[in-house]
Amino acid sequence: MLERINGPRDLDALSVEECTDLAAEIRQFLISEVSKTGGHLGPNLGVVELTIAIHRVFDSPNDPIIFDTGHQSYVHKLLTGRKDFSRLRMKDGLAGYPQRAESPHDVVESSHASSSLSWADGISRAFTRTGRQDRHVIAVVGDGALTGGMTWEALNNITDDNDRNLVIVVNDNGRSYAPTIGGFARFLNGVRVTDSYRDLQEGSERLFDRLGAPGRTVYRAARGAIRGLVSRASGNQDLYSNLDIKYVGPIHGHDLEAVERALKQAKAYGRPTIVHVITEKGHGYAPAENDQADQFHAIGQINPENGESLDASSGRSWTSVFRERILELAHQNERIVGITGAMLNPTGLDAFAKAYPRRVYDVGIAEQHAVTSAAGLAYGGLHPVVAIYATFMNRAFDQLLMDVALHRAGVTFVLDRAGITGPDGASHNGVWDLATLQVIPGIQIAAPRDEATLRELLGEAVEIDDAPTVIRYPKGSVGEPIAALRRSEDGVDVLLESADREHADVLFVAVGPMARIALETAALLEQQGITSTVVDPRWVIPVQRSIVDLARTHRLVIAIEDGIRVGGVGTTIRQELREGGVDTAVSELGTPYEFLTHASRGELLEYAGLTAVQIASDVVEQVQGKRLPIARPE
Asked: Which of 37, 361, 431, 493 could cross-link to 536 by cystine, CB 3.0-4.6 Å?
């Protein structure tokens, strides 16, 4: 059946029974293919019928479909002709999120949650403004995305100007179904979206409005009473009762016929409509349905027969080290509390929450609120630790600047998945935090190079109560420990130095895990007769005085970071050298000034020129005076 579907309109000729067979085939395809590559399996198993119904009722790409978030778009990719999942989330393969370069059916590429309704608001306004009222906009919003403030800002504006074709599909993928929807609820759903109902409502509103304030009061009271009846009958529980947007649901999301009927009603209504669909994450695959952690939200390679992981262990992860260390610190210091935005397990705060459930706050996908709330907690005498993915920190920059830093609040930010993450693509690579956060006055940013330094730096950070602190580390394994030869008075670790400290050629300033690459590069340069010093600042911002002093005695400084090099740590080091009267040339190595596509971390590091061989080759030419910036003469 799936082989016959090369585009959405191929669905039109299928019966409901054939579509049900297609849904089963798609599930088997997803289980088979995603188990080989890894990816977001559970969410996509939950939206099979919903996605089929959307494409049967609407006309993509003429009717744009926006997924929030985009990890639930695998079925959409299949139905729009993209069936080669062999390199899913790999270089030159399908992206794990919508991607415009892949298909005109993909609209929004960003995988950050809670933005779809703002996109849909803008697109639908543009269609109305330009006379394209025949086109519909469909936003598929996961239940987690509704916890983000942007969705409610968008809803507020949509309800204020609701003369456009906009359908909001709430994909409510809780762990259990709502009660079966009976004929009475279906009847009410149908009534609410008919032209006669709309005309009656608008006519009644105009009539009572002519009676002045008393008439409007009577109208609002009557309308509220009717809404209460409808809400109780349909199981809506008044969630959307204060919005001037029609509500259809809840609908059994795996009943294809019911979902299609609801979407057709919403389409015919001609005004913004919410269709509330109850789905089950991981539906149809027992290992996912029975997984208590996250129902296979995101997986690595697994055995499709039983769901057991096939990923070979590559050592302790950065996240697991944080998980253990924050719990130790919480035992020692009752002032420490944790905050996260719907990422309790992925960031490693779960053990802390289990041990001290009243000291950890999961605020949902609401990063702005999390940061300002942390400022309030600090004012109240606590020390909040905000654990978040580095890329999501972008969303709360203003709150960090104006609510935390301006008020000198002692808040520690732990940024997981910092730097190049790889397979999840452009919006998940955490390469912006070093460049953006260091402009904040008073901030202190640390980048551990191994397990020991992560444990040490986190302990230091939670003792700072008069400024924001940041600990950032990448995805994956921490690797082998890297011992320091000595530590300067201001806390800089010297990892390698030549016998003649006063006359070394190259000073490598390595940010966090880039220390390993710096040491490998130094070993290659030694074979060319070029001597090196390698230091790990630990606290990379502010730049320590010992870095400036070391630069005086070297011919060239190489700063290596896995963040965007524009405005990165290397740029700040160069500025500090100039202010200190040091004219040693600085080569600032980091990721390029562009959005990096999905590929492995190793492939992206090579693309950015951040491998030992590439760096060593460039340094040789700089020392020889063949490449800018040129090393100072001996």
From this structure: 493
Confidence of residue 524 (pLDDT cuts 50, 70, 90): very high
Please calculate the CA angle 408-411-417 and round it to the nearest 5 degrees: 130
pLDDT classification of 332: cutoffs 50, 70, 90:
very high
Please state which of the ranges 288-292, 452-456, 559-563 shows the lowest mean pLDDT. Answer: 288-292
So what's the pLDDT on residue 422? 79
Residue-wise DSSP of 80-112:
TT----TTTTSTTS--SS--TTT-TT-------
Type of residue at 302 = I
- Hey, which residues does 337 pair with through a beta bridge? 384
What are the catalytic residues?
281, 367, 395
Q: What is the pLDDT of residue 295?
A: 81
Based on C-alpha coordinates, what's the Rg of the chain? 28
Neighbours of 333 (CB within 10 A): 13
Asked if the peptide bond before residue 69 counts as cis, ω within 30 degrees of 0, the response is yes
**C-alpha torsion angle, residues 352, 357, 363, 365 (rounded to 10):** 50
**Regarding predicted confidence, which is higher, 141 or 236?**
141
Kindly state the tokens that stand for 314. 């590559």
Residue type, 207: L
pLDDT at 586 over 60: yes
Instruction: Return contacts of 353-359, CB within 8 angstroms, 24+ apart.
Output: 355/327, 355/330, 355/331, 356/330, 359/330
What pLDDT, on a 0 to 100 scale, did the predictor assign at position 195? 52
DSSP state of 392: G
Give whole-number Cα distances, 193 to 199, 267, 270, in Å: 10, 9, 9
Q: For residue 558, what are the contacts with CB-CB under 8 A and spacing of at least 6?
A: 506, 507, 508, 509, 518, 521, 586, 587, 589, 615, 619
* Helix residue ranges, H only, 211-283: 212-234, 256-269
- What is the pTM for the complete model shown? 0.85
Q: Phi and psi at residue 155, in whole multiples of 5°?
A: -60, -40
**Mean pLDDT, range 2-11, rounded to an integer:** 92
The arithmetic mean of pLDDT across residues 582-609, rounded, is 91
Spatial contact of 181 and 234, defined as CB atoms under 8 Å apart: yes
Q: Counting every residue, how long is the chain?
A: 634
Tell me if 430 sits within 8 A of 397, measured CB to CB. no
Alpha helix segments (H runs only) across 462-528:
515-526
Phi, psi of 556 (to 5 degrees): -155, 140
**Within 13 A of 247's CA, how many CA atoms are on the CB side?**
23
SS3 256: helix
CA dist 424 and 99 (Å) reads 12
Q: Which residue has the higher pLDDT, 186 or 304?
A: 304
Beta partners for residue 472, in sequence order: 415
